Amino acid sequence: MFSARPVRALPHLLRRPAPRRWVNAAVHAAWAWGERLGDVVPGTELADRFAAFGRGSCLAFPLQCVTGESEIHLGRDTLIGKYATLSVGYGPLQAQLPPRGLVIGDRCVIGARACITAHESIVIEDDVWLGLDVFVSDASHGYTDPSTPIGRQFGEHRPVRIGAGSWIGHGAMVLPGADIGRNVVVAAGSVVRGRVEDHAVVGGVPARVLRRLDADRGWVAPTAPPPVAVPIEPAEPVSMVSEVTP
Q1: How many whole angstroms separate alpha carbon 64 and alpha carbon 4?
Q2: Among 33, 48, 51, 184, which one has the highest count of C-beta atoms within 10 angstroms of its own C-beta?
Q3: Cβ atoms < 10 Å from Cβ of 172
Q4: Maximal CA-CA distance, the chain
C-alpha cells in the first residue's frame, strides 16, 4: 500500500542544506539541457516551417510567440534571444498572409523579449542589433470611431525598414511607417516614427536627431536654424515738454 509519509517528509528533507543544494543544481542542469534542446536551429521542425531559415541562425528557447512563420525570412548567422515574439498577420487563422511579411537579414542580433509584429512588411537589413524589449510593428489601432472600442479598430498598415548596421537600444519602439537609415543609433527608450537619415544618432519621445555624421567635421550636433531678424520700426519722438492749452 502506498504511504504518504515519504511525500510529507520531502519538504522537511529539502530544508536541509545538502539535499536542497543537490536539487537546485539538478533543476538548473535540467533547465539548461532543455534550453539547448529547445533552441530552433536549421533542421528542426519549426525552422522548416519558415519561408527561409539561414545556416548558423538560432531562435533561442523558450519562445514567446511565433505565428505566420511561412512568411518569415531569416538570414544567416542571426541570433534571436529568449521570449521573442515574431509574427506575420493577425493570427494562425488568417487565411492569406502578406508575402515576405517579415524579413530579417544576415548577422543580426535580436535581444530577449523583442516583439516584432508584421501585418504588411517589416524589413530588418543585415548586421542590425536590437537590445532587450524592443518593439517593432507596421500597424497600430485606430481611434476615429468614438462608438467602437479602440481595440477593435485596425489602423493603417505602413511598412517599416531598419537599415543595415543600425543599433536599436533597450526598450525602444519603432512605429508604423518608420524608415531608419544605415548605421543609425536609436537611444534606449526612444519612440521612432518617420524617416531617419543614414549615420545619425536619435533619441527621445518622439525621437529626434542628436548627432549626425558630417563629411568634414565628423559626428556633430544638428545646428540650430539662424535667428530670424525682426525689423524694428523707429518709434515716433516724444516731446519732453507738455503742451499747455491757453
Answers
A1: 38
A2: 184
A3: 24
A4: 131
Q: Would you name the residues annotated as active-site residues?
A: 141
pLDDT digit string (tens) for 202-214?
999 999 999 999 8
Q: pTM for this structure?
A: 0.80
Three-state SS string over the chain comes to CCCCHHHHHHHHHHCCHHHHHHHHHHHHHHHHHHHHHHCECCCCHHHHHCCEECCCCEECCCCCEEECHHHEEECCCCEECCCCEEEECCCCCCCCCCCCCEEECCCCEECCCCEEEECCCEEECCCCEECCCCEEECCCECCCCCCCCHHHCECCCCCEEECCCCEECCCCEECCCCEECCCCEECCCCEECCEECCCEEEECCCCEEEEEEECCCEEECCCCCCCCCCCCCCCCCCCCCCCCCC
Q: Rounded CA gap, 75 and 159, in Å?
A: 19
Which of 47, 38, 54 is CA-nearest to residue 70?
A: 47
Pairing of strands 191-192, 185-186: unpaired
Query: For residue range 17-72, what is the model confidence (pLDDT) as tens digits?
Result: 667 788 888 888 998 898 889 999 999 999 999 999 999 999 999 999 999 999 99
* Residue 178 φ/ψ region, left for φ over 0, alpha for ψ in the -120 to 50 degree band, beta for the rest: beta
User: Which residue is associated with the grid cell 549615420?
Assistant: 199
Cell numbers linked to 243: 503742451
